[in-house]
Structure formats: structure tokens, C-alpha cells
Amino acid sequence: MLRALIWLILTALSGGGVVVYALYQQYQEQSAEFRILYRDITVKLAQNDVILALLSNSSDPAVVQHKFPYILRWQTQPHDPPRPDINPARAGTYWINSPQGSLLIDLPTLLTDFAHTQKFHHFSLSWQGVALLTQGAEGHDDWWRWEKQIISPSQPLNLVVTNNPDWRNLPWLVLLLMGVFWAIAIYLYNQYQMTKRQRNIADLRAHFSELARLNAMGEIAAGMMHELNQPLTAILSYSQTAQRLIAQQQAEKAQPLLEASVIQTKRISALLLEFREKLHSDEQTLQPVDLHNTWERVAVLLGNEIERGKVTVINQIPESFPPFMASPLGIEQIFHNLLNNAIQAQQQTDKAWVAINARQTGNDIVLTVTDGGPGLTEQALEQVFMPFFTTRKDGLGLGMALTETLVQRLNGSIQAENSPNGGACFTLTFPLTQQEA
Predict the structure, then answer these.
(1) Domain shared by 146 and 7, yes or no
(2) CATH code of the domain in which 271 resides
(3) Cross-strand bridge partners of residue 289
(4) Residue 241 has what pLDDT?
(5) CA-CA-CA-CA dihedral for 385, 195, 15, 21, to nearest 10
(6) Are 161 and 26 in a shared domain?
(7) In a 3-state reduction of DSSP, which class is residue 208?
(8) Residue 176 lies in a domain
(9) What is the mean pLDDT of each run of 10 residues along the chain (437 residues)?
């Protein structure tokens, strides 16, 4: 809707500019036509003064009428009493009066060439408000009007013409092409913005994924310390006991203790190898993952938060659900983020609960995580997977962005919506048989 409005505004502004320029060009052309018409009429009327000065009583009427058919009558004696310089007679005729005599001019005949060739909508010649010659409509509603008095001492007639724009000759093809141009420009700009946004989001997610792994290293290291503490303690105990036995000349009893120390050392090596593989982002091995047990394990890890918030965690994944080929650590992180967010969203809820269920649809696995919280706002529904978006004061806004990245690495998809009964609902879809993305 916004893009359509922008296109409409840009097209209207640019099209309006083209139309205004085209109308200005038409106005200038018609103004030039008016100046030509005014000049020709001025020249024609000036001939009457010359003719009046040359005529005499001896002039042959037939010759005069042949050469000047617009002269109906003439008089070489001045009127007594004197008349005005111009004396309108019947429609389209008027007397020119001077001390030398008078001429009765038929104005339509005088201007017959101009009357048929002029292109104006309204054309009129008048004297002191009396119309002598009028052609076309009245012209009161016409767009353009030109008016000027003829410069003549004996015939100061007032010339008025009006006209309208020629809408048919506007550059309609240019206007159409301009609309197409802005549509293409807006489309290309949106494609550029979308590509840029996707590239920035991909870069941010890759960066934040690394940050999340670094933050997770502390938790993993604490777990590894717990795992390594037992074999190291055993190795220390075995070694000290073996030392005492050797000092007591009982070396044969120390042999099993040394072998046990070797076994514990190999166990430490295996744990460290597993630790390194978990930290390596590009070489995680896909393994069969028991989703039911993984959810239970994550619930144990978040046991303190669950107990503190009095949250009921419901596991509706069947124990017989087929294993899912994935990275165990990745699935744990996905479940951990979803469960932790659901717990955080229900801190002010009396009866807090989180439920997960799984079903197999064709060749896909569909997981649904719902809770009894207040649900997601419209803004959260649009930006829940955007990096740095969070509704918690102390949140970083990285958890759900990392979750979506982990889901996509497993060729899956995740959607957020609100349940009909309230609360948030996250739906995860994975292919049952896959390779790591």
C-alpha cells in the first residue's frame, strides 16, 4: 500500500510537471498567434485611413468597390454637425469620420481572411463596449484570454480573443512512460533494499551466532569442569595410592591402579574432543536425536527457573517418536531458547505452563511449542526473529535470532503466532531425512 502511494505521488508530481510545461508551451504558441493576428488587423485597419485621405468626389464608385469591396459608402465632405471618429451602423459595419470625409466599413468583409484562419475559440472586435465583430462562443469560461487595443488614431478598436488548451495534443505517451518508469524504479529500489536488508541480517546473524557461541563457552566450560573433575580426582587418587604401594615394596598391587589411571586419562581426552567439536561451528556431526529426552534434559537444565516461576512443563512428544538426524547441541539450544522465553513471558502469570508436541506429516517433523502467557504483540510478531529485538529490559535480543539460524541450518523453518486461547505459539518444521545445511 505504501509503495503504491509513493508511486502515485511521484507519478502525479512528475506528470503534473510535464502537463504544466506542455500547457505553457501551448500558451506561448497561442500568444504568438495572437500577436500575429493583432499585427495583421492593425495593418488592415491602417489602410482605411490612407484610403479616406485619397478618395474624392470624382472617384469612380465601381473601381473603389472592385478594389476595396469592404467599403460600402463614402463621403468626402465632413458631417455637420461633426460625428465621433467611429460611428457604429448596423451589425459589423461602422463609419470612420474625419475632417476629410467618412467611410462606411464592412468589418467582416475587411477581415474575412483572418476570420476564417484564426484558431481561437472566441474572437471579437469592439469599440467602447459595442461589439462590431464577434465569432465563436462567448469565451467567459475559457482558460486563456488575450486583450489589446488597436493602435490607430481613427479606429482604436479593442481586440479580445480566448482559447482553451488542446488536451488531445498533451504528451500522453510520455505520461504513461513516466508512470512505468517510476513503477520500475520503485520495484528496483525495493529489491535493492530487500537484498541489502537480507544481507545485513545474514551478516548480523553470523556475527551474533559467534557471539552466542562465545557466551555459551562459559556454560559449556563449567559443564566440562564438572565432567573432568571426576576422572582427574580418580587419577589423583589412583596415582597417590600407587606411589604408596611402590614405596612399600608392593609394586605388583600398583599395576591395576596405573591401568585405571590410563583409562581415566583416555576418558578426559574423549571429553576434550567432544568439547572441541561442540565449539567448532562448521563441523558438527549430525546424529540421531531423541526429541523427547532432549526436551526433558533442557527442562532439567532450567529447573531453577521453572521452580522459581512455578511453571508446569508438559512434554507431549511420544517416547516412541522416531529419532531426528540433527546436531544434539543445536536442538538443545533451540529448545533452551524457546523454553526460557516462555518462562520469562509468564513471570506475572498465576498458572504458567509450557507444552511441546510433535507430529510427523509426510516427510516432515512438526514441533509446536505453546505457552499460557499474554502472547506476542503485533510488533513482536513481525520482528521476533530480528537481532536486538527484545521485550525484556535486560534482554539482548539475540536468542530468537540464533534460534532461527539454528533451525535454518537444519533445513527447517520456524513461525511465530498467537494461539486462539492466548499465549505464544512457535511452530518448527524439519525434514525427517536431511543433511546439514
Answers:
(1) yes
(2) 1.10.287.130
(3) 324
(4) 85
(5) 130
(6) yes
(7) helix
(8) no
(9) 87 91 92 91 85 70 77 72 71 79 83 76 87 82 90 86 90 90 91 88 73 60 58 80 84 80 76 64 72 88 80 91 85 87 84 91 91 85 75 67 84 89 90 64
Number of domains in the chain: 3
Tell whether 35 and 58 lie within a shared domain: yes
- Backbone phi, psi, residue 103, to 5°: -130, 135
Q: 256: domain range?
A: 196-278
- Give the span between the Cα atoms of 98 and 100, in whole angstroms: 5
- How far lies 220's CA from each of 225, 226, 278, in Å? 9, 10, 9
Instruction: Clarify whether residues 165 and 201 are in a common domain.
Output: no
So what's the pLDDT on residue 82?
59
What pLDDT does 436 receive? Answer: 45
Please indicate, yes or no, if residue 335 is contained in any of the structural domains. Answer: yes
pLDDT of res. 229: 66
Interatomic CA distance for residues 30 and 122, integer angstroms: 13
- Residues 6 or more apart whose Cβ sits within 8 Å of residue 169: 22, 26
State whether 271 and 335 are in the same domain.
no
Q: What is the CA radius of gyration of the chain?
A: 50
Query: 169, 188, 204: which is the final residue of a domain?
Result: 169
DSSP state for residue 92 in the 8-state scheme = T
Domain annotation covers residue 78: yes
Whether residue 182 lies inside any domain: the answer is no
pLDDT of residue 84: 64
Q: Which long-range contacts (CB under 8 A, 24 or more apart) does 36-42 make?
A: 37/114, 37/118, 37/120, 37/159, 37/161, 38/148, 38/150, 38/159, 40/114, 41/111, 41/114, 41/125, 41/150, 41/159, 42/150, 42/151, 42/152
Cell 534460534, located at residue: 403
What is the structure's pLDDT at 245?
84
Helix boundaries (H) for 248-317? 251-279, 291-301, 303-309
Q: Length of the chain in residues, anyone?
A: 437
The grid cell for 385 is: 526473529
Q: Do residues 203 and 310 share a domain?
A: no
Q: Looking at the structure, do residues 124 and 228 belong to the same domain, yes or no?
A: no
The residue type of 207 is H
- Among 261, 278, 295, identify where a domain stops: 278
Q: How far apart are CA 280 and CA 252, in angstroms?
A: 44
Q: Give me the amino acid identity at 414.
A: I
- Model-level pTM greater than 0.90? no
What residues contact residue 102 under an 8 Å CB cut-off, 6+ apart? 52, 74, 75, 78, 79, 83, 95, 96
- What are the start-end ranges of the H helices in 310-398? 328-345, 378-383
Cα 14 to Cα 1: distance, rounded to the nearest angstrom: 20
